[in-house]
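Example 4.3 (complexes with small molecules)
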Amino acid sequence: MRTVYVNGEYLPETEAKVSIFDRAFLMADGVYEVTSVLGGKLIDFDGHAKRLARSLKELDLKAPCTEDELLAIHRELVARNEVTDGLVYLQVTRGSAGDRDFAFPDPETTEPTLVLFTQNKPGLADNPAAKKGIKVISLEDIRWGRRDIKTVQLLYPSMAKMAAKKAGCDDAWFVEDGKVTEGSSNNAYIVKGGKIITRELSTDILHGITRAAVLRCAKEAQMEVEERSFTIEEAKEADEAFVTSASSFVMPVVELDGAKIGTGTPGPVAARLREIYLDESIKAAV
Ligand code: PMP
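Answer. The structure with 4'-deoxy-4'-aminopyridoxal-5'-phosphate bound is encoded below.
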């Protein structure tokens, strides 16, 4: 049985409890992070901790502890659950004021809720999907306007994954005003004439930690990067496409709305970036 963390305690997962009045349960008033674990070490921890701090600040949510304490909790859970390859899920909520009310409770008297748990994913970096590539559909982006904050409001992304599954595909790319914003749980890229194109950072997309690291790798490898939005039509005409996230690293996209991208097989740019990113991030893992 897994050991999980709830508000200062390490407990068997069946004994961990959060109030029914917790604002994440009632209002989706919470933020989260997912950090991958490879070889027992945390990938891009610093980036995830910094983004968490930003999400908390944007929502006027109190930080439950320091970054050093968070790192210690991550490490303790990885050790206790003997995770070699997998994920650490973290969630901070505005806590429970013991009743339901739209107004935020007083942070002096209502402590944030902090929950962490691990997920074992043996062979996470050798996911066979990376060799085959994934198929995506496009869907209208009807999420709220602050997608740069990593909130737990994941109903529409869940619906998008279900729509993709129903269409015999793996995931969805969201489209707003004719341009791709991002994937349902990843950042989206196309490659044309050797150039890597991905939407610029704004409140329209999540500022992916993997995105930042992969773009750094691309620039170090002298690959050309252009940060701008693109259309589904442009993506269909691209040489390659891929997505990035903490749990999938760099994942090739080989089909979009039923049309093959490039040769319909994973392209060399995505493969190279996956290799460089995994290599560099494993070296820097903590
Ligand atoms: N966009 C969205 C909407 C996401 O949910 C995620 C994954 N949490 C990402 C992008 C990728 O972010 P990261 O690389 O930090 O996992």
